[in-house]
Amino acid sequence: MTTQANHGTHWKFFRAGGFDQVRLDTGRAVASLGELDQKLWAALSCPTRGIELDTRTLDSIDSDRDGRIRVGEIVAAVEWACGLLKDPDILLKREDTLPLDAIDETREDGRAVLAAARRILAKSGKADAGTITLADVSGVEEVFAANDFNGDGIVPPDIVEDAVLRAMVEDIIACLGGETDRSGLPGVTRDKVEAFFETAATFAAWGARADDEAGLRPLGEATDTAAEALHAIAAKLDDWFTRCDLVAFDPRAAAPLNRSEEDWAALAGRMLSPAEEGLASFPLAAVAAGASLPLGPGVNPAWAGAVARLKAEVVVPLLGDRDSLSAADWAAIKDRFAAWEAWQAERPAGPVGDLGIARIREMVASDAKAAILSLIEQDMALEAEAKAIASVDRLLRYCRDLVTLLNNFVAFRDFYTRKRKAVFQAGTLYLDGRSCELCVRVEDPAKHAPVATLSRIYLVYCECVRRGGDGDERMFIAAAVTNGDSDQLMVGRNGVFYDRDGGDWDATVVRIVDHAISIRQSFWAPYKKMGKMIGQQLEKVAAARAAAPRFPPMPPPVSASAPSAPAPAAAAPAAPAAAQQPFDAGRFAGIFAALGLAIGAIGTAIASVVTGFLALPWWQIPLALLGVLLLVSGPSMLITSLKLRGRNLGPILDANGWAVNTHARINIPFGTALTHLAKLPDGAVRSLTDPYAQKQPPWRLYVALGMAAGAVALLWRFGVLARLWETVAG
Fold first, then answer.
1. Contact 100, 66 (CB under 8 A)
2. How far is CA 490 from the centre of its chain?
3. Exposed, middle or buried: residue 580 (CB in 10 Å: 0-12, 13-18, 19+)?
4. Residue 441 neighbours by CB distance under 10 Å
5. Residue 463, pLDDT above cutoff 70
């Protein structure tokens, strides 16, 4: 991609959010996007999910299928779309309707797309139409995908008419797995078929050796079943005959090899059965030098079933009916199965053998491979048409959505002009008498908040629930509160969220990121804090007085005639009570004196302020009041103003997986426009009479009396009353 614009004369920019944003309002600007310096892009990547844009459009742009769209993929999509159109200005209409004469026929891929568009219209019964819509393509694509063949080179069993051949395709899928075709069904590809029949041929050749070499199956067709019975007990038989050989070597081994009395005693206290877990570890039978294994009574009950099966399926067919099995007999049996064991060791690996040798031979001997490959070739013959239909669908989606994505990726034009909602705006939250338009979807508020707090925006995280017949739908949103105050915003507060489609959700506040909201709130903040502090102190004093006893406790009466009861000897000595301090009159006099001095000092200070205030000329008094207000509220308003100017959209989007490339600021006027407070309609009639309003004190009278007193003080201060008195007295 070119990193520096070579034709800067046609670029236009507008200033919003504290940075220059490119205007993509001409087809030439869109087509030249690859020449724009990447440092001038508003974003460098964004996720394909969680934004309000068609996911199929986003997936078609995401060429590497990693769930993210980057600058190179945006440029490639723009170049592909503009290369198929005669005039890229058609992209600016953001419509899913495309005139056929807008497709560039001078290019080979353009001719293929135009031919596919005409075939689509013909299949839809609109052969004479001059325009094609996304609805036309979607309908044909769905029918095409569900048809017998759809050009993807995958044949699912459902489209195979022959029942025998269909069963073979199902067997191939069962062994090697299937590939998902365009219709969403599992099927087989050429590679799968070739691999299956190659393995099946190897397996069939391996199985054919049993027919050519008679020694591989000592019991004919019953060899496999007999081998299973033999393997079930072979290790135990080797163990028993080895024990007998050890006793023949040294008779002293007989006792321990037959298990000790302690082992038998451990079993004696249980409720025994042939399935006893510990019993299976005991020898098959009593161990003795040169002994033969009994094939009936005398065998370990835990192995009686396996011994009986061995006798019926192996011993009798090979050696005849007998009641015991000697070491020589056992060696002869193993020798008869040695060739079979070696043959089984050469069995080809893989799941194909699970079908069984008979089924594999049947499939290899038939012409199934050629028939299935023929079906795949028949499907592949439609590949060009299928790709062309997909290209028409992609082009129409780009005509509708591509410029929308550009105006929310290359620039944040949709967000700052507010003519359209940005793709990251999920809807509108109504909460606490206001509506918040900057709402983004979040996966986990706990992970989103630590990054989003860097935006310096007051954020309210809500869990949104929509109940329906198929169960509750849930999602989380983060809403920016940029106007009003936060006095009534708290976790647990309920509101309603409306998504982009108009669906309503119950919204509950689950987390808050606290930041400044407005300068108006900061003006009253010092007074609210002071009132809150005074209220808390008053509550503490009231609580302390309520907890204190009204009267001191009276000592118990003491009777001279009644002897005092002796204290229990075993009781622990009580902690010594604090000695009661005598009343110190001097100390309390000092405290009262200090309080009096403090009150006097405060009164003197107040009197000095009032006197100085009244000493001012009449026109300076309002200025003095204004100065006091600025002295108290000014610092808070100044700090809040600086914070509000630093609000930034970037961290909110970065926390959702975006890579924002600039400082997308939200200043005070723009923030006020993103959150609307409750306002009466124009021309509304409002009645101020509230029959249930609380009785208010006669504050109007108090104000009037205060103003009168102030007027009298001013008249006295400027000598008006004195001159009037002299006039009257004279």
1. no
2. 24
3. exposed
4. 20
5. yes
Q: Among 450, 504, 516, 518, which residue's Cα sits nearest to residue 478?
A: 450
Q: Which residues lie closer than 8 Å to 155 by C-beta, 6 or more apart?
A: 149, 169, 181, 187, 188, 189, 372, 375, 376, 379
Determine which helix (DSSP H) or strand (DSSP E) holds 207, and give its type and residue range: helix 190-212
Q: How would you classify the pairing of strands 293-294 and 324-325?
A: antiparallel
| Contact predicate 463/701, CB 8 Å | no
109-136 average pLDDT score = 89
Q: Are 190 and 183 in contact (CB under 8 A)?
A: no
Q: DSSP states of 142-203 as a string?
A: HHHHHSS--SSS-B-GGG--SHHHHHHHHHHHHHH--EE-TTS-EEB-HHHHHHHHHHHHHH
pLDDT tens sequence across 246-262: 989 988 888 888 888 88
| Planar angle of CA 116, 121, 126, nearest 5 degrees | 160
- Angular region, 574: left φ>0, alpha ψ -120 to 50, beta rest: beta
Query: Does the structure show a pLDDT above 70 at 699?
Result: no
- Which class for 17: exposed (0-12), middle (13-18), buried (19 or more C-beta within 10 A)? buried
Beta bridge partners of 674: none
pLDDT at 29 over 90: yes
* pLDDT digit string, tens, across residues 343-373: 878 788 888 888 888 888 888 888 988 999 9
431 with 61: CB under 8 angstroms?
no
Tokens of 305: 């079933």
What single-letter amino acid sits at 520? R
Lowest mean pLDDT among 105-109, 121-125, 291-295, 454-458: 121-125
Residues 503, 475 contacting (CB under 8 angstroms)? no
- Cβ contact 495:431 at 8 Å: yes
Burial of 451 (0-12, 13-18, 19+ CB in 10 A): middle
Q: Which two tokens stand for residue 11?
A: 């670029």
**How many other CB atoms sit within 10 Å of the CB of residue 176?**
18
β-pair partners for 511? 461
pLDDT for res 487:
84
3-class DSSP state for residue 208? helix
- Please state, in angstroms and rounded to a whole number, the distance separating the CA atoms of residues 506 and 710: 55
CA distance 510 to 477: 10
Question: Of 313, 314, 352, 347, which Cα lies nearest the Cα of 330?
Answer: 314
Q: Are strands 186-187 and 179-180 parallel, antiparallel or unpaired?
A: antiparallel
Q: Please, are residues 313 and 226 in contact by the beta-carbon 8 Å criterion? A: yes
Structure tokens given for 419: 């003519």
Distance CA 398, CA 402 (A): 5
Please list, in sequence order, all residues whose beta carbon lies within 8 angstroms of the beta carbon of residue 381, skipping any fewer than 6 positions away. 149, 151
Distance CA 561, CA 193 (A): 116
Length of the chain measured in residues: 730
Q: Please choose, from the candidates 52, 20, 51, the residue with its C-alpha nearest in 3D space to the C-alpha of residue 36.
A: 20
SS3 300: coil
Cα end-to-end distance, the chain, whole Å: 101
How many other C-beta atoms lie within 10 A of the C-beta of residue 379? 24
The SS3 call for residue 283 is coil
Integer Cα distance of 321 and 312 in angstroms: 9
Domain extents for the chain? Answer: 8-149+382-416, 157-212+361-380, 219-259+279-349, 424-515+647-674
Cα–Cα dist 94/561, whole Å: 108
Higher-pLDDT residue of 603 and 89 is 89
Cα separation of 387 and 168, whole Å?
A: 29
With residue 41 as reference, give the H or E element that holds it: none
Determine the residue type at 262.
E
Candidates 568, 454, 580, 428; CA nearest to 507 is 428
- In 3-state terms the chain splits into helix, strand, coil percentages (rounded to 5) of 55, 10, 35
